[in-house]
Structure formats: C-alpha cells, structure tokens
Design goal:
This protein has 260 residues and is of the alpha/beta class. Helix content is 34%, strand content 28%. The structure holds adenosine-5'-triphosphate. This is Vitamin B12 transport system ATP-binding protein.
Length: 260
Amino acid sequence: MLSLVDFSVANRVGPVTASVSPGQHIALLGPNGSGKSSLLLGIAGLIASQGQLQLEKQDIRQWSMQQAAVKRAMLPQRTAQLLPIACHQVIALGAAPLNRHESVVESAIEQVCARLELADYLSRDFSQLSGGEQQRILLAKTLLQVWPSLNPQARLLLLDEPLAGLDWHHQLILLGLLNELRLQGLTIMTSIHDFNLAVAHCDVIWCLQQGKLVFSDVVTQFDEHLIEQVFRLKTIRSQAEGQTLFIPWQVSDEACQKRK
Ligand SMILES: Nc1ncnc2c1ncn2[C@@H]1O[C@H](COP(=O)(O)OP(=O)(O)OP(=O)(O)O)[C@@H](O)[C@H]1O
C-alpha cells in the first residue's frame, strides 16, 4: 500500500491525501505545470517533500538510495540523452543496485528486451538512436529494476510520460506489459496526456489541477465534465468496441473568452 497524507512538494504540488493498493495502475492526469512530475519525483524520494509518504508503512524518504532502488523505480520525463555507450550498458544500469548474479541479470535483460522488441538494439550506440528508441531503452532499464524474476522485492513503479515519443504499436506493447506487472502485484503510477489510453489501460485516475488533486476515482467515473473543468477543453464522448473514447472538439468557452 502506498499512502500519502497531506503530502506536498513546496510551491509545486499538494497537499495530497490519497492511497493506492498493491496491483493498481494509477493514471496521473493534469494540464502542463499541474504538478505531475513533481508528485512522482516527490513520491520517489528524489526531491524534498513534506507530509506523510509511506510505502508498506515505511517512509521512503528514510531509506538509503540503495534500499529505495530495490523497492521502487522511476522513469523521469524524457530529455535528450547523449550517452555514447552501448544500449546493453544503459539497460543493465537498472540492475546495478540489485546485486544479482550476472547470469540472472542477463536472463532478465533478454526477457525485458524481447517484450519491448529491443533485442536488436543491445550492441548499438545509445547516443545514435532516435528519441523514441532512446525512450524505449530507458523504459527497459526502468522495467529491469522491478522485473519480477530479478527483483521480487520491487513494489512501486513510477513512470513520467513513458509514452512520449513512442509510436502506437510500442505504446500498446508497453501498456500490455504494465498490465502484466500490475497483475503480479506491482503498484504503477503513470503520468499521461492521453485520456483514452488512461481510461482503457489504468484502474484509477488521479487528476491534478494547479497542484491540487481534484479527482481520484476509478476510470469509469472520469468524464467530459471533469475534462472541461480541468483542461478547459470540450470533448465528444463516444463508444467503440465497448470502449469509452473522448474526442477533442474545441477549447471551452471560458478559455476562448480569456484569449479575447
Ligand atoms: N525544478 C523546479 N523548481 C521549481 N519549480 C518547478 C521546478 N520544476 C517544475 N516547477 C514548477 O512546479 C509546477 C509543477 O510542475 P511539474 O513539472 O510538476 O508539472 P507537470 O504536471 O509535470 O507538467 P508537464 O505536463 O508540462 O510535464 C509548475 O508550476 C512548474 O513551473
């Protein structure tokens, strides 16, 4: 269980009071600057925060970096990466804090790369890859850190816009893999800008607006009224193949008024 009580990152997000059960996949939604990255970095214990933050009744911030790395992994928001080293080395960094035998690590790298369709990339120079390819390598590194056969102690996976730069094929491959990890008990929190993927692939939505948590509920409760209120966007709600779809239509009247 991940539990936040009056949790905040000064001047950036909070206070947030909410909890997440093991095996839940939370989609973190919100407009630009609403606090998604700050919340994820705060929960990861990577930036200073206030209030209560507990994973399995322990304060993540009290753990050493090594202890925290065993329990949780985080993919930060995408930035240009110029590391001129082999992709295999980049991915293997995810296993560095785990102190596992090389053969176990190699076997896990093989499994993760097979799932993310990265087997042919291992000897390539990371700095020479496209943005989306680099993102997939960094995802492999992060997933390796929580890969069940390599690290059964992992409990929490925090992903900041993991779909950024990925084509639809690789987005769906990743979301399917996250669902499998969730079913094995991992708690996953993913910041995402695509409402439709959030509703289709996550269990619960947390929605931030100007640093405040304005919605936390199961995906079926997410609707066009909330989208308009938080994102100042009118959407058309539709159904296809039993799936709810929100189609962006126009910025809301209020937003139009402000521009005039
Ligand atoms: N390093 C920083 N120092 C101070 N303030 C910051 C820092 N990074 C972000 N902020 C501010 O904190 C607030 C939340 O930013 P954050 O990056 O968490 O938003 P976000 O929801 O992830 O946005 P986006 O969708 O654009 O990635 C914004 O007002 C931002 O300007």
